[in-house]
Amino acid sequence: MTDEPLRDAVAGGVLGAEAGHLELLQSIVEVAKAIFRARASSIFLLDRETDELVFEAVAGEGAASLIGQRLPSSTGVAGWVLVTQQPLVLDELENDPRFARDVAESTGYVPKSLMAVPLLHDEEILGVLQVLDRPQQERFSLAEMELLGLFASQAAIALDLLGRARRARAVVNDESPLGVVARLAATLDAASPARREQGLELLAALERVLAP
Amino acid sequence: MADAHDEELPAWSLPSTSLDAIRMPPTWPDRVDREWAWGGSTGKGAVVAVVDSGIERGHPLVGEVEEAVAVSVTPGEEPSVVADEDGDACGHGTACAGIIRSLAPECTLVSVRVLGSGWTGSGRLLIAGLRWAIERGVDVINLSLSTTKLDHAAVLRELADTAYFNRTIIVASAHNMPVESYPWRFASVLSVGSHELGEGDAFFYNPRPPVEFFARGLDVNVAWLGGSSVRSTGNSFATPHMTGLCALIRAKHPELTPFQVKSVLHQTANNVREEMP
After folding, report:
1. Which of A57, A87, B145, B239 is 20 to 30 A from A128 (CA-CA)?
2. Under an 8 A CB cutoff, do B149 and A123 touch?
3. Is the CB of residue A118 less than 8 Å from the CB of residue A125?
């Protein structure tokens, strides 16, 4: 227990939520990698402020070093999928030296094949899911494309939740205008029982005044 | 008086004196088949715009690109269309162009680059590029992309209708994901999904729209950057197959409207009149 339980109730819920959503994203890429028997899978989040793609979850090859790395959203197949919102599967990529170099920079190794699908929630594009190097000898099927689409829907929901949690955290952050709510909670936690009771009465009055 | 009527009033009605004006070449055969539709056509004379990531110059599977423009956007200003020297930003436009040329080797290719500057403003670039291609009066526009932005839907629908009435055929990729997206869902464009048959030029009419046609989109060998080729899968690559057929038909029968070209494709689809593979 900390000495600021009320503040924690306000802020802790959203902080805990973010960790939970990141775990969910990680679980999605782990399952996608396993189901497609791929060498790696990753989820990029679109950062609208900087127009960049950010690695949020990576399973398999390159996992340790890639989380948090950023790429301009105008580059590579992930950028193309982001902008066109069309899923794409490419094989025999080793034939294209420029692509190999670009992708190596963003994945830590050069894949021979790549599946990329946009992460769409409502009308918004949130990011891109990639699956790298499924077994080459197996012919790709449209059923696999649909399966990839199902993973994408799940990943998009998780990314949406993550975005909400981060926005909520920004709201209770001390530096935001609404940080006063979190600070007030901390002050009430620290107050003597009598002052705390007075403060809560004042807040109840404020609530009645502000109620529509 | 009849002439004055034709010139001064919009043609929303048909006076009996104007029947000659709507007489229609060519003579339609009793049965529209592929030989009539595009037999002997190389696409020569048909102008095809690829609205995409650009087209790599001099790619052996693409050949000559007659015109290349790029749409650029500065915040606060209207997008502008300028000559494009940069080629292809990612490989995708080159792939589409290669598929179109494999079917219609002598069509005229116009590259309209609307990608390559990232996510910001991408919807505005698409709209500006599409508008430019329609105003240029090209025969066919290949659009292997879509947007889920409802804000853009009204403008795109208007552009799709303008193209349809100006005789430009927009061939657009359907989404194979359960999302609302545009412009492929509009009735005025020709929408394309993938079928799973690996070889050949089979295509199918879908009696259960919104997707209207299925073309080859699985394991297609396509042109890619640096003169290379890769194998690829996606509705993005089914779409240029239908674009290529539209170019062949338009080259042989330039007077056909988008409605008539669609109708010819329906008549010649493998599940309608041709042999089922």
Report:
1. B239
2. yes
3. yes
Residue with tokens 């693409």: B62
A51 to B119: CB separation less than 8 angstroms, yes or no: yes
Cβ contact (<8 Å) for B148 and A141? no
- What are B94-113's pLDDT values in tens digits? 999 999 999 999 999 999 99
B42-72 pLDDT per residue, tens: 999 999 999 999 999 999 999 999 999 999 8
3-state secondary structure of B119: coil
What mean pLDDT is reported for chain A?
A: 82
Q: B52 to chain A, minimum CA–CA distance in Å?
A: 9
Q: Which of A212, A143, A87 has the alpha carbon at shortest distance from B181?
A: A87
Q: Do B230 and A92 touch (CB under 8 A)?
A: yes
Supply the ipTM of this predicted assembly: 0.82
> How does pLDDT run across B199-227, given as a tens digit for each residue?
768 999 999 999 999 999 998 999 988 88
Nearest by CB to A120, which of B115, B120, B177?
B177
pLDDT band, very low/low/confident/very high, at A3 (cuts 50, 70, 90): low
Q: Which residues of A sit within 8 Å Cβ distance of B?
A: 46, 48, 51, 72-77, 79-80, 82-93, 95-99, 117-118, 120, 122-125, 139-142, 145-146, 149, 152-153
Show the 3-state SS of chain A: CCCCHHHHHHHHHHHHHHHHHHHHHHHHHHHHHHHCCCCEEEEEEEECCCCEEEEEEEEECCHHHHCCCEEECCCHHHHHHHHHCCCEEEECHHHCHHHHHHHHHHHCCCCCCEEEEEEEECCEEEEEEEEECCCCCCCCCHHHHHHHHHHHHHHHHHHHHHHHHHHHHHHHCCCCCCHHHHHHHHHHHHCCHHHHHHHHHHHHHHHHHHCC
| pLDDT for residue B173 | 95
